[in-house]
Design goal:
The complex is a heterodimer of chains A (112) and B (111). By secondary structure, chain A is mainly β. Chain A is built from no helices and 11 strands. Helices cover 0% and strands 53% of the residues of chain B. The chains are: A mainly beta (112), B mainly beta (111).
């Protein structure tokens, strides 16, 4: 089954404790991206990757890091989480930015 | 500042009514997509429009891309409770590598 998986689905952590949210896709897609979704603000892109070893900032990259060492994986790293990073995070993949984005199920992060 | 503004932000209607959701921008997009998101899930693509003035139909849903490719609308005929969800538009700008999402319209269809 074609899918994007994210782990964990739910995470409660404390300020400053480094965390990683994993994302993996099995569709051999070139393009992957991370979004955060907040009430009234819609989906905002954090980082995206056009291909392996190629990543670039989206609209709200501050406080986040990503890596794309393998085509299928695109982890999101919060080196020192803060409460304003409490949000619902989605990973997505597609053949290209203009094509259908396949979204993962989301990770709800709470930073205390 | 949001690149794509959707209106209305919230919409609650009775089953059987018609409705239109708008997605507006001052920027030109090379293509525009509409997604629906249900609680606890990621957005799922409904349609992609690429040509100014293009109209696409998906059962009771009609999507239109503005002539100038700056706006789009989603019209639902005879809404059903299964249409309930968050509707998101997303645009791709020529020469840009990222996708811009709208603010979303949360639709509730009451049986």
């Amino acid at each position: 089954e074609a899918q994007v998986t994210q782990n964990p689905r739910y995470l409660i952590t404390v300020t400053g404790k480094k965390l990683t949210v994993t994302c993996s896709q099995n569709m051999n897609h070139e393009y992957m991206s991370w979004y955060r979704q907040d009430p009234g603000l819609g989906l905002r892109q954090i980082y995206y990757s056009m291909n392996v070893e190629v990543t670039d900032k989206g609209d709200v990259p501050e406080g986040y890091k990503v890596s794309r060492k393998e085509k299928r994986n695109f982890p999101l790293i919060l080196e020192s989480p803060s409460p304003n990073q409490t949000s619902l995070y989605f990973c997505a993949s597609s053949e290209d930015r203009v094509y259908e984005q396949f979204f993962g199920p989301g990770t709800r992060l709470t930073v205390l | 500042t949001q690149l794509l503004e959707q209106s209305p932000q919230f919409l609650s209607i009775q089953e059987g009514e018609n409705l239109t959701v708008y997605c507006n921008s001052s920027s030109v997009f090379s293509s525009l997509q509409w997604y629906r998101q249900e609680p606890g899930e990621g957005p799922v693509l409904l349609v992609t429009v690429v040509t100014g003035g293009e109209v696409k139909k998906l059962k009771r849903l009609t999507f239109q891309f503005g002539d100038a490719r700056k706006d789009s609308s989603l019209h639902i005929t005879a809404a059903q409770p299964g249409d309930t969800g968050l509707y998101l538009c997303a645009g791709a700008k020529a020469g840009a590598n990222n996708l811009f999402f709208g603010t979303g319209t949360r639709l509730t269809v009451i049986p």
